[in-house]
């Protein structure tokens, strides 16, 4: 039974990883691609690791999987944040569909 | 007992538990090796874990942290379904943009937690934090409004109250 639940989590994880990769290809600019890369891929990989934990139980493999989830949740948003901020600072243009950029407005206000 | 000692003991216990979990403890030699390694780690880096005494005093906050974790996981699941829908839709119905939200949180760790939570939830990605007045700049994949107060409620409001209880 627990094996089947674990398999379910692994399959869901792979599905969300797939959505993330699809988003990486389809979405228009750096910022939108980061959205897909941080959310879907983090959730998907966490799902896979949690499935591994359920199948393995509390031995060294399962414990490593849990540690992997913890570090994934801590590091993935930080790296996305760093990439987005540096992209904006070095002037990577936003896609044409972008409706508002209050960050740029505030930076210009500070510069004057 | 001083703050540094408490911090060292906590680091020792945590690293020993990590070591035992990772090695799948089978005989006494591994236990001894783990104790020696944990002692070295706690002597070198032990004093950095606890920065103030309040952390030990309010250890019961861990239950609030767990409650926060569940709220966060639920929001994150919703986020993923939303982003997956946007990605799969043939017309890509996105309205991206960077909006500003305000935050009442004061200390560094709670703002870090808020920024990370926002990054991992519905189509939002923290780009920068203003150090002086704690404004957060968020890139949204689907901008609903350009008003700062409305965005503060819809994006950060869910987490901010619980985070304030956990960290401050």
What's the short story on this structure?
The complex is a heterodimer of chains A (112) and B (168). Chain A has 112 residues and is an all-alpha fold. Chain A has 4 helices and 1 strand.
Description:
The complex is a heterodimer of chains A (112) and B (168). Chain A has one domain. In chain A, 82% of the residues lie in helices and 2% in strands. Chain A contains four helices and one strand, in the order αααβα. In chain A, α1 packs antiparallel against α2 and α2 runs antiparallel to α3. Chain A starts with a helix and ends with a helix. The mean pLDDT of chain A is 82. In chain B, strands 1-3-2 form a three-stranded antiparallel sheet. Chain B has six helices and three strands. Classes of the chains: A mainly alpha (112), B mainly alpha (168). At the A-B interface, α1, α2, α3, β1 and α4 of A face α1, α4, β1, α5 and β2 of B.
Strand order of the largest sheet of chain B: 1-3-2
Structural class of chain B: mainly alpha
Mean pLDDT of chain B: 77
DSSP helix fraction of chain A: over 70%
Give the tally of β-strands of chain B. Answer: 3
Domain unit count of chain A: 1
């Amino acid at each position: 039974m627990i094996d089947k639940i674990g398999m379910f989590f692994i399959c869901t994880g792979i599905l969300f990883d797939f959505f993330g990769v699809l988003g990486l290809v389809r979405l228009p600019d750096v910022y939108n691609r980061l959205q897909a890369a941080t959310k879907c891929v983090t959730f998907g990989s966490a799902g896979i690791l949690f499935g591994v934990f359920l199948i393995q139980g509390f031995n060294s493999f399962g414990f490593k999987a849990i540690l992997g989830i913890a570090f994934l949740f801590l590091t993935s948003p930080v790296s996305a944040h760093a990439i987005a901020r540096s992209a904006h600072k070095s002037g990577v243009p936003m896609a044409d569909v972008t409706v508002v950029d209050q960050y740029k407005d505030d930076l210009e206000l500070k510069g004057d | 007992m001083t703050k540094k000692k408490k911090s060292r003991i906590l680091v020792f216990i945590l690293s020993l538990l990590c070591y035992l979990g990772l090695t799948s403890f089978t005989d006494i030699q591994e236990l001894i090796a783990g104790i020696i390694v944990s002692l070295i780690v706690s002597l070198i880096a032990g004093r950095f874990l606890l920065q103030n005494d309040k952390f030990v005093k309010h250890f019961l906050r861990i239950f609030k942290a767990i409650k926060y974790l569940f709220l966060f996981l639920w929001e994150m699941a919703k986020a993923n379904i939303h982003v997956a829908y946007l990605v799969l839709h043939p017309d890509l119905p996105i309205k991206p943009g960077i909006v500003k939200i305000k935050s009442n949180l004061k200390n560094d760790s709670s703002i870090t937690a808020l920024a990370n939570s926002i990054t991992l939830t519905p189509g939002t990605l923290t780009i920068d934090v203003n150090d002086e007045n704690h404004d957060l700049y968020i890139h949204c994949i689907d901008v609903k409004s350009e008003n700062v107060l409305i965005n503060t409620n819809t994006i950060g409001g869910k987490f901010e109250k619980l985070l304030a209880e956990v960290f401050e």
